[in-house]
Amino acid sequence: MLMDSLFSDPWTSSFNKILCRQGFVIAKSTRLQGLVLLVYTQMKHVMHLRDIEAQYTKTGLGGMWGNKGAVSIRFNIYGCSVCLVNCHLTAHEHLLADRINDYNTIIKQHVYHVGETTNILYHDYVFWIGDLNFRTDHPQDDSPTSEQIVETLNKVEKDKYTSLLKHDQLLAVMDTGEAFSEFVEPEIRFPPTYKFSVGGDEYDVKRKPSWTDRILYKVITNNYENVTLRADLLSYNHMPHYTVSDHKPVVAMYSIKIRNGFTRSVVAEAPRARSGIRMRSAIVMPSTTDEVATGAVPFVSSDGEGTNVVAVDTTDSSLANVQSTEEEVQAFSNYTEKTVEFAAISGIWYIGDADFRTQCTLSPDVEIHPNDWIGIYDANFHSLDDFIAYEYLARVSLPHAPTTAGQPRTITLSFPVGSGVRTPGFYRFIYFSQPNHDVRSVLGMSEPFEVSSKEDRLVAIDPCEQASGSSSPGRSKPSTATTDIFTDFTGLDVAKLSRHFSNDLSID
């Protein structure tokens, strides 16, 4: 725990190596000792995340220790509320009552600051995952040994575990209403995930084989008029090849229905400045403002032993061959897409400049809070928590002329010396609305801009060099404000580029 407080924990590092290379960023992460919950999103969805908040509850040693308990993250995406819960409940077959109590304690203590979703169960979509620790529980007069259960499993026809699941404690308490009765679990078509010999695929008969690792979900289908929300299961399975734990992780994929996702610019139609450098992971603005909001918002949990993973694909209704209607959009009439749009930054921010200025335009529905802030991020940032520097909006916004009610407001931002970055490279601004310390929303993100040293320009181009049609080595293409041709950086000293993403430049 001490090492993980100083460095990134191994679970986060492992998933980052895969997901961040595919254009995902961490929207939020939270941890309670061995419990970790990571929420990733595709870059194109970042600006549609609202009211992000995390909570935790300790249930170990009567609520004093975090070896057992739960962590959760809630957020809104395209107007729908989502809550993700990762838990590690009380162990051992005979402590069923304690697991039930753990569940009710978590439900009671996880309180959020967002309007009508103060409770886990109030959200449109809830996914509850983790080591729930429910065991197989047979009648005392007919209780098989662990060896007998393993023998029975070896004889079970593939994917058919109905006879054993009749003794599953979790399904029993869901039926009686004692715990998790609000949730649904897809049909289990994989063998018990606990307990295995570490490093192998054989059951450890010191414990009865049980389905301890589960993924449940809940949908409020009719929370809005004329719109029926749904979560469609794509897969629910275990990972038998994973052998470094005595658990086998479980993985689920869902497609959830959200509102029609599109964003209209709050700035009058104006030409956007094109960047002279193409970055593999940088945001690509859609060619149309009516782009359908599709993509993945996966979240990952770990209890330090095994890992449960859910990937949630947020799919617009039109992709499900359901005709979108005006009534459907109006059903979300209480939802407004609050946005902040940064002006294109065509100039270079030189390190040590006394006053770097840019502008941003706020949609009419944006309410400015005292804690609103603007973060400065690497252009290819991997987490919303990885800001390099930040300034509160109140400190960098200059007075602006009053605007007519219902009209966008354009604010000039002035960043003084000391608020910038110290390393040449490419960066971007992100605007966060933060009504209180616990909740934040991403309202806007700028395109990448350059920060350079006055003594050593990041890119030096000889205007006398003429480019050939074959882009032969040693020659440079002229760069102008009106051309769409990307600069040829042949011979560029890459060591002078930003240490964060010099290897991610895709040079044409």
UniProtKB/TrEMBL annotation:
Designated name of the protein: Inositol polyphosphate-related phosphatase domain-containing protein
Source organism of the structure: Diatraea saccharalis
GO cellular component: cytoplasm; plasma membrane; ruffle
Recorded GO MF terms: phosphatidylinositol-4,5-bisphosphate 5-phosphatase activity
Protein family according to the UniProt entry: Belongs to the inositol 1,4,5-trisphosphate 5-phosphatase type II family.
Pfam families: Exo_endo_phos2 (PF22669), SKICH (PF17751)
Domain Inositol polyphosphate-related phosphatase: 1-262
GO aspect biological process, one term: phosphatidylinositol dephosphorylation
